[in-house]
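To: structure subgroup
Subject: Chain for Friday's discussion

All,

I'm putting the inputs and outputs inline so they're searchable in the archive.
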Amino acid sequence: MRSVRALAVTAAFLLLAVAVNAHAEQPKQGGILRIYHRDSPANASILEGATYSVNVPFMPVFNNLVVYKQDVAQNSMDSIVPDLAESWAWSADNKTLTFKLRHGVKWHDGKPFTAADVKCTFDLMMGKAPQKLRQNPRKAWYEQVEDVTTNGDYEASVHLKRPQPSLLALLASGYSPIYPCHVSPAQMRTHPIGTGPFKFVEFKPNESIKLTRNPDYWKKGLPHLDGIEFTIIPNRSTAILAFEAGKFDMTFPTEVSIPLLKDVKARDPSAVCVVAPTNVSTNIIVNSTKAPFNNPDIRRALALSLDRKAFIDILFEGQADIGGTMLPAPGGLWAMPKDMLESIPGYGPDIKANREQARKLMQKAGYGPDKHLAVKVSTRNLAVYRDPAVILIDQLKSIYIDAELDVVETANWFPKVARKDYELGLNLTGNAVDDPDQSFYENYSCHSERNYTNYCNPDIEKLFDVESQETDINKRKKLVWEIDKKLQEDVARPIILHSRAGTCWKPYVKGVTVMVNSSYNGYRYEDVWLDK
């Protein structure tokens, strides 16, 4: 069994590293891992997905060029290891990244993997391919890529417009699989072909997703499992009850809330459960080009109205974190210092004073006790979205806003917010890696598909480029703090909290690792095995 690391929560809500080692046990081959899935993905294409509802079931089908080491809980540049690339090297000017590729790797349909597939994947992600992705939520990651060239079948080079040290971190995420040249984007939505440890069998929307062992996987002896089956159960309580009853071997990753975690342990004391930061922020998205939210005073009033501690106490029994855009410490490596965070309007502890200031801003905008602002708060039809949306609606009453809940199914949620078809939304933003380039460019750059709020500040975007090129970590951190503070002051996307959540599995499930700073780590279950 591989090392299991996670962050557990103490009574004081501090994070401690927990490692379980059982190297003496010999992994057993065979068996189907049964996991419930929290909802039905729109399709099977990871490159087009904006939610880890796609990433979790389909990443086992794929490999990346590089990947975060699967048994190290905290992702960092130091935990990046080869995958389809055997090695990599930067040029002297840090503008070319060259990968030496593995020989003898086959796609699931038997065709050979070559450097051409790397170039085709980059062309897709950059929007340069003849066939286009229907959605391209991470195109902003690759704005600095000039071109990708190949040297024979087993060498590919990424040429940058300027240095970007974090490119390797982005390529290690679970949102960066390599796609085959010979399979169309349309087919990848319905029947994905990869090089990974498991092969796609079927996806029945609203029912199940099934994968089977790849007998020709290039990592000899892996995977241990014969297959993985995801049964789609959108109702979280129903799914948890089914896990407790033994119908599933494992919960959907980081989907067990803190209150439900206590129920699981009470009903199934043998279950192994780990609580960890998810690198998912609960936030407000505001359509800043649509009246009345094009008024900055109203956006500031929204931010000032928030009682973040109330959200955390109600939803997480105190076990969540307050922060800016970047994941709070110690799970996150780029968090603002506490005193800097609390200097931002709305983050101070005096909720009464904050809301009084918010009401004055609302009155300045023409609203008050006799004239309330009526809005719809749109959110995705999942409990982790709906529950905080209800709390938000209640808190907005304190500043003359009467809000109505507008629930949207998963398949429609991301297209809806991407086309800015909403007024106000309660959103969860999952970050694929704990790196500022991923978060800043993807969520806040002017032309990113995932900039759902229409926030656009060219001056701050120039700072993105400055921090992105900085190779001195301490200097880069200070730049990141400055940017994060400015984003909160601009009410670009008010961050309510950063969640912690549980993942549980039966004691006979071995080799599981729960990541502490990313739910999108490219976890492929290739080391997991069943001891029964």
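Points worth raising on Friday:
The chain has 15 helices and 19 strands.
The two ends are 14 Å apart (CA to CA).

D.
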